[in-house]
Amino acid sequence: MWTHAFGDGDPDVERRMNRPENELPTALPVNRLLARTPEVAVALVGLQAYTTGVAFLLAARARGVAGPEGESRLNDLFWGHRSGPRFLLGVEFADGRRASSLGLHGSAGDLVFHPGAGSGGEASVDQEWWLSPLPPDGPLRVIARCPELGLAETAVELDGAAIRRAGEAATELWPYEPRQDPPLEPPLPPDVPSDSWFAR
User: Locations of Pro residues compositional bias (predicted)?
Assistant: First the structure.
């Protein structure tokens, strides 16, 4: 998705920008509740480990569409359609490397951390996330914060060694080949009558 935006021509970084298309991941039976209040719950669902990183779904659910003051529950906080409060998500490796949703395009040093596809609205959001490289042995901390949803800063720990082993066991379907995206060309102008305002 962002390969050309900040891969800077480094083949290793470009390869790790998204989940590899030449692999089948190893599924990890890990669903973890990240945060919960009487009105909101956020969980990590369905970890998928690849040789270059791990993908997971962030699932958020709100009991009602709006809070007591009529503020929005999930849509604006997750998708960031306007400036203001956001749902914050971060990761920290056992060796101290870290990245968050506040980072420049989701990368920090050699870490790649960014959202992918997602869906939802005011009461339900499912958002894919990609983290690369695979974590080292030790705890992989996932941190969340969203006071607007009543979620204080909280963290859960995942087993970095188990994620790494799972990624190393991913199935390579065929050798990796860099994508050769064709150069973008400007679209052809529409066919309009010569007497049209748009033809002038």
Answer: 181-192
